[in-house]
Amino acid sequence: MSSLGVRLIKWSLMAMAIIFTLSFFLVLLAVMLISSVWSLLRGRKPQLAVWWIRYQDMSRQMASGRVWTAQRPQGRAARQDADVVDVQATEVRDAPRRLPPQD
């Protein structure tokens, strides 16, 4: 092949790769936008915002050097843990009488 043909093939493949990449990012942007609007219509926080908050928390932990430290639950989960009460187990000796089977 001539060098002009090789250049033409190379440029066309590069153009196709750029078009594919741009179309992929456009579809990704459209899906993120639609899912955010759908979440807002249902009265929930958009998933993208939740991911961003988790990413920021994780990066703060990495920067402070306490990556693997256990965190105590806050809010409702902490109250539920405090409400746990152990009970005394008792043995039931006499089984209740059962009704005869009905046909």
Which terms summarize this structure?
103 residues; mainly alpha
Oligomer: single chain
How much is the average pLDDT?
82
Give the distance, in angstroms, between the N- and C-terminal Cα atoms.
90 Å
Work out the number of β strands: 0
What is the ordering of alpha helices and beta strands? HHH
The description of the largest β-sheet is: none
Uncertain parts:
none
Strand content: under 5%
Describe this structure in words.
This protein has a domain at 3-64. The protein has three helices and no strands. By secondary structure, it is mostly helical. The longest helix has 39 residues, at 3-41. The radius of gyration is 31 Å and the shape is elongated.
TL;DR?
Helices cover 62% and strands 0% of the residues. By secondary structure, the protein is an all-alpha fold.
